[in-house]
Amino acid sequence: MNDPEIPLPLTESAAETDAAPDSASTPIAEGEVTPIAEGEVTVEGNLPVSEPPAPPERLLPVLPLRNTVLFPGMFMPFAVGRPGSLAAVEVALSGEEKTLLLVAQHPGTAEDAITPEHLYTTATRGVIKRMNRTDEAMELIVQGIERVRISRIDQVEPYLRAAYEVVPLPTDTDTEVEALQRAIIEQANQAMQLVQPQMTVNAQQLLSNATEPIKLVYLLGSMMSLAVEKEQSLLEAASQKDALALLHSYLSHELQVLQLRQKIAAQAQSEMSREQRDYFLRQQLRAIQEELGEKTPEKAEVEALRQRLEEADLPDAVRKEATRDLNRLERLPAMAPDYQVTRTYLELVLELPWKKTTTDQLDLDHARKVLDDDHFGLGEIKERILEHLAVLKLNPHAKAPILCLVGPPGVGKTSLGQSIARALGRVFERMSLGGLHDESELRGHRRTYIGAMPGRIIQAVRRAGVRNPMLLLDELDKLGRDYRGDPAAALLEILDPAQNHTFRDNYLDQPFDLSQIFFIATANTLDTLPRPLLDRMEVLRLSGYSEDEKLQIANRYLLPRAKSETGLANAEIRVPESTLRAVIAGYTREAGCRQLERAMLRMMRKLALGVAKDDQPAATEVTPAMLTELLGPPMFVPDERPSTLPPGVSTGLAWTESGGDVLTIEATRLPGGRGLRITGQIGKVMRESVKAAQSYVWSHAESLGIPPERFRDSGLHVHVPAGAVPKDGPSAGVALVSALTSLYRNVPLRRDTAMTGEITLSGLVLPIGGVKEKVLAAKRLGLGRVILPKANEKDLRDVPEAVRESLEIILADHLRDVLTAAFPPQ
């Protein structure tokens, strides 16, 4: 007959042993004469009569089944994978009848090393109807033929083989059997209606075809998800009455479970609204637990918190407070407002690393290598960092340093903090303070407020998972303040090693030790920071990079990164030094390297487009002539000032948050005018410098060779170009004096000279800040001479040696020296 399609998924089982076809005795042909041996008994007719021979023993391979039983007359799919099972199936397939014994193994037995003690004795002889081989298993469809009893195990290795005897199916009938059969059919119909109402008609037709009671038992036993012991008891039943009685009890239990399930679903459904769909599953779980008499989710949650509290390594004071809150939580109803607040608080207490730390890797050679690999230059900064690491190595109990990296954007402040964390082996956490204007963001909110949460410091420690991470406070100078408090004032306690070992967050309300945290702050300027906050940090200044340093950074870091991000890492694209210098000079004018990195990315994206369209060969050398096509026209052109400056124009140097800059100062006389006009968005301090410069030149007119009537006959207008950019500070004093002296003497200044310095009315030149940035700005603009205050000579060591050697640096401590160097030789 045709094999039926079995829609059931293949369940893994195992099978063992060879199929030996049944043997039969050889009959004696009719009329055949057989000699009578001596001693044989004869009966009438002289026919020999002897003891009938014993029937030959039946042997078949055995396939052990896990978690299921095959009933006679039923089809079942299997997946066979164990070596002994595969060998048994192979033997069965080699026989003509393809039969084998399928016997269930006792629950809880090991998957391997099946012994006769692990198997039931009542089994089913089955025939393999379909077979499919895979890489590691064999998929079978087997039909049960008859019920058998294993009499003995004939063979164990390499597969199980057993002798068996057929156990006929029971055929007893009476009125009780008929009543049980009808009751079972009714129960099965009810169960089908509860599980899948749309399949009830098909199920009824299937049950009606099972006319014999024992076949009905086997059919429903196969359809129900029964335990192996229950299925085996159905197979072993000695009579139809016993089998029907067992099945009736099993069906009654299943029907009760299905009815309870429907009741639970109906109960949860009645309480659910359209806005409470997410609430449905929780209600269903609650109803199940109530029916089973189990604990509610709230009680289970409290017990889980209590277990975590017992296992947590907490300080004694914290454990005492947490235990008190947990006892209070246990008494609160789940819908109470304080329930979720207390539970969230306890979870925070249990998640904080009160005593967990990481071990610092205080290998100074490794730290230096990491810093050199990640950053080019910054020699003094790296030495200062290594000094701090050496102190931590010699004194493990020393307070962690609090560094403040100050410098223009793009010089690597944030990435330097990451490199320090990698060198130390500490967990790195970054916290941006830009725009923060609420003190509670750092200290946390009190738990009495709705939506209260811990401050950012405690949250960062919880994310890090250890109490000694490296915490980067980024953009410290961008802190704000308003009616909600001053965040900078909250940082006074956080960054003070003498106080932060008992830092109290408003939400946590428990002392937490912050003294082992390695704090690193970054800022572009220190002007907006309070002096008490600066007093708690050690300031490390990161100045801008020179052209040679930018060239090295572009070659080592920016260009490979741009190639990788644009998919050109494997392409043979060369960017020679001349091209990089052209990019640095024509498309960037900054202290850092951020604009340079963007230019590299734009250039690589253009090349990537050509390579993707097959318009550009993968092997390309980018020449300076190609930059206009790749990056557009240059944004900055070389200084095109005339060979001589007009009288009244001088070149000053200024410091900005983006690095140094060159400042042009213009002065002109107003014939017939009176007074002083100042334009160009000049601040109060710089206005005072203009007036001081005018007073000095006027008071020393005779020694400077200026006719005094020029001050009486005309007014004065001083203008600083780039009027949209605010300017302030005292360092433009010497440039203002030089511009006014040039104007009144009608003699131009040298065009290749820039100057900076504060002045006094007596002519002294006072020191200023930002020497390195200002000198680098003069170098970028192509100037050859720089006039600096004599007192700033010590700051020249921060200027790269190559820049110092390429510039003529004049040190002056009086305005006489400045004017002598600023004017062309007579």
TrEMBL record:
- Mention one GO molecular function: serine-type endopeptidase activity
Domain (Lon proteolytic) spans 644-825
Instruction: Tell me which SUPFAM superfamilies the record gives.
Output: P-loop containing nucleoside triphosphate hydrolases, PUA domain-like, Ribosomal protein S5 domain 2-like
Ranges where the record places region Disordered: 1-34
Q: Which GO terms describe its cellular component?
A: cytoplasm
The entry's ATP-binding residues are 407-414
Q: Which UniProt keywords apply?
A: ATP-binding, Cytoplasm, Hydrolase, Nucleotide-binding, Protease, Serine protease, Stress response
- Positions in coiled-coil regions: none
User: Where's it found, cell-wise?
Assistant: Cytoplasm
Q: Where is the active site?
A: 731, 774
Q: Which residues form the Lon N-terminal domain?
A: 60-255
* Induction data: By heat shock.
Into which family does the record put it? Belongs to the peptidase S16 family.
As for what it does, the entry says: ATP-dependent serine protease that mediates the selective degradation of mutant and abnormal proteins as well as certain short-lived regulatory proteins. Required for cellular homeostasis and for survival from DNA damage and developmental changes induced by stress. Degrades polypeptides processively to yield small peptide fragments that are 5 to 10 amino acids long. Binds to DNA in a double-stranded, site-specific manner.
Q: Which HAMAP family match?
A: lon_bact
Please state what the protein is called.
Answer: Lon protease
The species this protein belongs to is: Tuwongella immobilis
Q: What lineage, starting at the top, does this entry show? A: Bacteria, Pseudomonadati, Planctomycetota, Planctomycetia, Gemmatales
